[in-house]
Amino acid sequence: MNLAKTDQKKPSTGEFIKKRESSDDLEFSDNSGAQAASDLVTDLNSIGTYADNISGTNEFDKSVDDYISQTLKNHLWYHGMMFSGTFESMLTHDHSFLVRCAINRGSTRKHLCISTKLNRVVSHFLLDYNEEGWGCKNLLGALPKTAKKRFVHIYQLLDAWSLLMKETIPVPRKQFVIYHSCVTLGNKLGCGAFGEVYKGKYLPRGATQPIEVAVKKETGNSKRSAVKEFCHEAEIMGSLRHANIVCLYGIASLEQPIMLVMELVTGGDLQKYLQQTLHISNNQLILFSLDIASGMTYLASAQFIHRDLAARNCLITKDLQVKISDFGLAHKGKEITVKKLKKAPIRWLSPETLLKGIFNEKTDVWSYGVVLTELMTRCAADPLSPRTLKECHKWIKESEHPHKIENGEPKELAELVDICCDKNPITRPNFEEVSQRLQVIVKSYHTGGQFLGSLEMKKSEERKSGNSADRKSPNNGLVQKKSKEGKLRSTERKSKTQRRITSLLRRKEKGPLKLPTGMNPNVEKPSPPTLLQTPPIMKPP
């Protein structure tokens, strides 16, 4: 057969499921001081209903799961769970394709499909399975003898499809998609509406020793919206690398349950830390505000909008460094407008968001201003309390300075609140300007000798009253330590705050986050092959 003259007939519109335009509505969970669980709920990019012959049973689901676990996951063109909006940009060439797992709208039922670009249009073909094997009548419809044929393996079906095309281009999955076998779960740290968080260990590709991580695991039989949030958060976090943003090591999405493997941040969320820690100095609050501003400056420079910035969504390390987390609502782009706001965290939203549904960098800056009020009040109550949500909605839109705190301390942050919560988004600063202002404040404090206090962590207080090996001299501010020769020597004791400030001043800009050995911080973009070749089978570690 002359492949150049092979019938290149494209399936008709009715024979495959076309990509459709979508209009997302934004939904937030109720915000009453608890962790907000948010989700993009409306997505018209559904991949359709089940074929009649794959209505399926538990036995069918188990057979498919076993096939994925034993065979399919070893092929690089299998991407695991994916949703519309994440893979279209990967299909850059006509006849490029990938195989993915998907979930029907309003269901927990999963199925496999082939996503491909045909004549510059991204299309999706459902794969059906029975005891005789895999089939896809619509994909192979131009070959009558092959259309109804069943194949033991999906790659055999793809080889048959290649006879219809001059070339087909398999698209390899991204590097942050990892095998379940690389992750070991430990103690449970907490749980939320859509998942559980565990302390665990992860063995990076090429590494010899595992590292401690936090693992966010999808609960069993999660609905489409919950699974989509997992995958969306991984897609966003996978492209971010900054010292003040929680690092994503990978997403285990090839099998079930889906797991996000992230940097382990042991100090908990900032909201609880502020509520539970006594005597936090103004100096430390300014450092917290600088950490958050630095992370948001990076996020804005990468053209991402967080859309849910709050103290509850910031984590704190044992060294009191703040890291921004929870990217379930983050959006790639400079601006987005949503039609409806359901159960929105009103207290953190800007006037233009409440009035027009607009989200951009300036609306994140407004939310940052509200976070500053949380720092100043130590999260004693929700912002704008004791007003109800309805009263807050009206107050934010009508008041000239909705979040102004009279005689607030530190005064530098009180002034910054007024600037960040400027009701005119044009005169409201961007995050670069906010960060520069805070850096000047930190430098002036350090120069004036004001950043000399120690940090007020509970553990630090316990150490002061405990049996420490190093004793502080009562009057001279020196620490007596034993040298290698066994003699006592006195050295000046620097607080953690001083060390943080010195580090900030010496470092002009924060470099890329250090990753475990064997991990590449940049997403690899390999050139696609020009001819169909079944990619080599990659055996899991």
UniProtKB/TrEMBL annotation:
Limits of the Protein kinase domain: 183-442
This protein's record includes keyword Thylakoid: no
Enzyme Commission (EC) number: 2.7.10.2
Domain of life: Eukaryota
Residues holding ATP: K217
GO molecular function: ATP binding; non-membrane spanning protein tyrosine kinase activity
Enzyme class: transferase
Sorted UniProt keywords: ATP-binding, Kinase, Nucleotide-binding, Transferase, Tyrosine-protein kinase
Catalytic activity: L-tyrosyl-[protein] + ATP = O-phospho-L-tyrosyl-[protein] + ADP + H(+)
SUPFAM superfamilies the record matches: Protein kinase-like (PK-like), SH2 domain
Compositional bias of kind Basic and acidic residues: 1-23, 456-473, 482-495
Database matches in Gene3D superfamilies: Phosphorylase Kinase, domain 1 (3.30.200.20), SH2 domain (3.30.505.10), Transferase(Phosphotransferase) domain 1 (1.10.510.10)
Leader sequence segment: none
InterPro entries from the UniProt entry: Kinase-like_dom_sf (IPR011009), Non-receptor_tyrosine_kinases (IPR050198), Prot_kinase_dom (IPR000719), Protein_kinase_ATP_BS (IPR017441), Ser-Thr/Tyr_kinase_cat_dom (IPR001245), SH2 (IPR000980), SH2_dom_sf (IPR036860), Tyr_kinase_AS (IPR008266)
SMART domains cross-referenced by the UniProt entry: SH2, TyrKc
Region (Disordered): 1-31, 453-541
Family: Belongs to the protein kinase superfamily. Tyr protein kinase family.
Protein name from the UniProt record: Tyrosine-protein kinase
Species whose genome carries this gene: Caenorhabditis latens
